[in-house]
Amino acid sequence: MYAKACEKFPKSQEKMINWYMSTIRSEDLNSQHQVAVKLNKTFSKIESKYYFWSVMTVFLQGKKNPKPNVYFTLAERMMQKAIEEKKVTDYQMIYLYISILLEQKKFEEVVKTLNSDLSLTLFKIEDDRLRLLELIYTKSGLFKESYDISLQMLRKSPDSWLSYQSMFESLFHLDSPDLNFTETFISEQQQQVQYPTRGPFLAMIDFFDRISKSDLKHDSTRSYLDLLISYVERVGDVYCCFDDLKPYLFSLSFEDSKTFLQKVEEFIKKDDQKTELKTRIKNNNILVNYLKFERFFFTKFTLENTNERETIVLKNIEKLFNLYQNTLKFGAKNLDKENHFGDDFLILIVFYLIDLFEKDKESLPHYLFQAISILEYGLKRSLYNIQFKLLLIRLYYKAGVFVRPITNMVVELDIKQTLLESIGWVYIEGLEYLASGKKLIEASKTFNGTLAIYVSSEKETPDMILEAFQYGTYSKIEEFMEFRANLKNSLQKFIYETLIFKTKLRRIVTFTDPDNEDEVKFGNSEGVKKQTYENVLENFNDFIESRVDNRDKNIFLNWSSNAESIATVLNNGEVIPDDKAGEQLIKFARSLREKLTGFELKLKKLRDKLNSAKEIKIRTELFEEFTPCFSHDLEFIGENVAKHYKLSWLLSLNGLIFEIEQLISILNPASETFARNYHNYVNGYPKTQELPLDTILIGSSRTNSDDSFITDSASGATAFSCGFKTYNAAIAVKSDLSPCGTVLESAKLNGYLTGLVATSRITHATPAAWSAHVSERDDENRIAQHQIGNYTLGRVTDLMIGGGSRHFQHKSVKGSKRTDDRDLLAEAAAIGWDVGTDKASFDALTSDSKLPLMRLITQSHLSYMIDRDPTKEPTLKEMSDKALNILKSSTEKEDAKGFFLMIEGSRIDHAAHSNDARTHFEEILAYQETIELAKKFVDENPGTILISVSDHETGGLSVALQEGIEFPIFEWLPEALTKQKASTAVVSSVFEKKNKELSGDAKYAYFKKEIKSIFNINPTDEEIAFISAAPDAQTIDNFLGTAVSKRAKLGWSTHGHSAVDVNLYAYGAGTNALVGSNENVELGTFVETYLNLDLEAVTKILVENVASLEIQPLITKRSVSHHHQEL
């Protein structure tokens, strides 16, 4: 296509470059050269670079050709011609020429070129030229010249480790190396540098180490051991001190090791709180390095007696944990993304525990669990510690746990691009052994995600190569091409593809009768045909040899003398040994192929191959068995800490979580857009300014109920609270009228505190669905009884703040809705509730207020924000702030596991029912302020998560309006809403009274004046006539909302709900598991899993005692038309 375009437009430089780009993508070097020649011939007067493009393509052809000399000779001559014609004007062109010469091993010509006046002029950085010379001298066997270059570079840069390595490489190839001169030279360089420079000091150690491994003799006043000790004395407070010295520790004898440790221990000063913090941190770093040295020698000179070894290890762990606790105060002012200074103490504990576990996996499995819990404990304070997460992924896999690492840690690591190639193995190897059932789908997604780097490489690498051509960075072209080839022939890519293949095979198997071995068949093959796995195995041995292994197996810290001590656990035992990488992964497919006959398998064989590829003895469900030994073995840490560890451990199986805030609102995508637009308009902000919710959007929720595409609040909230779809109007009961246990109930029964906050009546559908069980949402009197604890489970709610006192008050109280003789407020107070029913009682609450407490500030719903009297009613933010502080404080005082709090911005929905846009905005803004508060709470309390979602959309809002058949103007007008003074609901109630009191011209004049005053609009005669004839307040309310919205160019499709998917927002560690589109019931399941709850157990209790719930039968399923004017 591009070739034809260039024939038609031969002078189009752009089209010819696009042609050249296409040849790079297709890796067609012959065509690439032809196009480069055409570019040079046509545009050489404009761009001289095309000549060098031709040279480069000839050179690349030579590298690909079995007879390269012809190409290299041609490329060399072309470069010589360019030099003669003075076309070589950049050091990158020199690099190209040198590369051509090096391929022909013309080292002398390379040296001449690098020492030429042209190179001296063009090389921008002299060290680059010298480094090349140093390399060429070494390659050509001119070791004396290379040694001299190294000396020259080190005199300029005495800390250059590369130059020291090059110097030693040359030195020890000389026939008569001058060791005395070299030692003196290094000593001189040491005098030239200041702390914390390490290069010349480490070089001296390396120098002596090389001598000890050679046949050379060298007399010196320095000893190898003294050099090591003096190095620690100099830079022992630098984090990498241990890693610097580790290669040199292996040669120390047992006695020298003891001496070394004794001397290093002397450098550690006793921690003194009066000492400057900076000095204390440095001293802590010396201690950390000392303990790493100690571990190294402990594993080097290990004790054979297992019991004695275990005793020593446990003492070390006790010491290390106490040290970690002492360092926490150092990080009091750390930023969120900073690791704590004592994190390495915890990693050392984990290494020791793994040692013990590896010695006897059958008898000491609890050490594996302790290692997991230690890391989870540390992760609470160092949320971004990569080593913690990498270790946890592998340890969880070893323990047979799938959910926590994949849904939390892998997502949080956010491994991208080339890291997928080098460290993706950390969470891929062994995953297929753990995934089964629905988890296979998650495993498939994970495997497919790992292919991203290879897809992007195919698209992006050619662009990188072309850019290198465009900018003349010829030294990068080979690098990019090698990168592309490595990824194309990647062993890891093959492993990923094989895992995808294996997972597909497992997913397409259907067991028709598990008890009949012959009734086993493959279902829908999803495109996996018989030839797929046969072709994978053809010429396998040759294929595997051609793969490039880019996996980084040194990603984990290792402070042991035995490189395999940690790797055995981290590699999950039998997963892909390095020397035969990929072989085990293919064995599965090979053995499976042998047993495939017409896609029919016997059940036993299928289970053996598909589900028992690796025996996992330790499963999540077995963890409870180890609770006693777990707590016992941690007694040395102290009773309170052991309690905390046990808590961490039990919760960490599927996610460590202490608090969950569930925020509910009726906030669909259009409402969020509308609120953001209006907020930015009235405040003069840029159109792109975000609201708090915008920053935590992660997905969506599908809202249909069991009996309708359009849900109501009762069934929508029940989906969240119970994880079940039910009929509209149901409050925590299923469609068969049987009760379902809720997250709030299970949380309470499992040791959490619980709370409800709402701007509606606390007995309204959404808060009720977490705390009561009735067949009809309007049964609010019975809901109130359940909420105070008058039902099967007793009291499960610790805190309630909102409106709705009318359903608790005795019927003698004006405004009460009770019809019996009960006074639920008095009953609640009698069983320990702290009861209040006004703003003053709310204001009196502090973080020390005792639970249980309720503050029912109004008889019905709280007022809209636009109508609110701040002296009588608090805001949603104020109520939420009180609730969070009280629950947090009570959690600490009562030693609870944490708390669950449901907060509802209820009146966002009510305003949308009225189509009252301005009131809708004010409620959304109040909710956004509450979100900002909740986000801050999550930030300040690691382990807390926030989920915000709507149970449905209301009003069918569209931020646009077309009134006629003409093509509309693209506009909406926020200005039309800015002067509104009250909600349409309040105004409509007043207008309903005036309709009865006034008539004729007086009524007309009143409505015209009031509508103009309250809404800043000029009503038409038709509009006034409609209001005058309206039968009730709700009709007026609906009409006013539409009238104002029409002037703002906002459209509403209903005064009810719609079937639109709603936005899902979440914040906090682990919430990325909710990314994407979710059924509303999946949110309830997520919280259940996250908090390690058991809703089924709660449901069983409720069903066994269903008679006491007095769930009333439904005469007919009602058409839900509830409205905020149910007063």
UniProtKB/TrEMBL annotation:
Gene Ontology cellular-component annotations: fungal-type vacuole membrane
Pfam family membership, one: NatB_MDM20
Comment on bound cofactor: Binds 1 Mg(2+) ion.
EC number: 3.1.3.1
A single GO molecular function term of this UniProt record: metal ion binding
Positions annotated as active site in the UniProt record: S713
CDD domains: ALP
Reactions it catalyzes: a phosphate monoester + H2O = an alcohol + phosphate
SUPFAM superfamilies to which the protein is assigned, alphabetical: Alkaline phosphatase-like
Keyword Metal-binding belongs to the record: yes
Cofactor(s) needed by this chain: Mg(2+); Zn(2+)
Domain of life: Eukaryota
Coiled-coil ranges from the UniProt annotation: 589-616
Residues holding Mg(2+): H764, T766, E904
Keyword Cell membrane set for record: no
Keywords: Coiled coil, Hydrolase, Magnesium, Metal-binding, Phosphoprotein, Zinc
Binding site for Zn(2+): D909, H913, D951, H952, H1057
UniProt record similarity statement: Belongs to the alkaline phosphatase family.
PANTHER family listed in its UniProt record: ALKALINE PHOSPHATASE
Name of the protein: Alkaline phosphatase
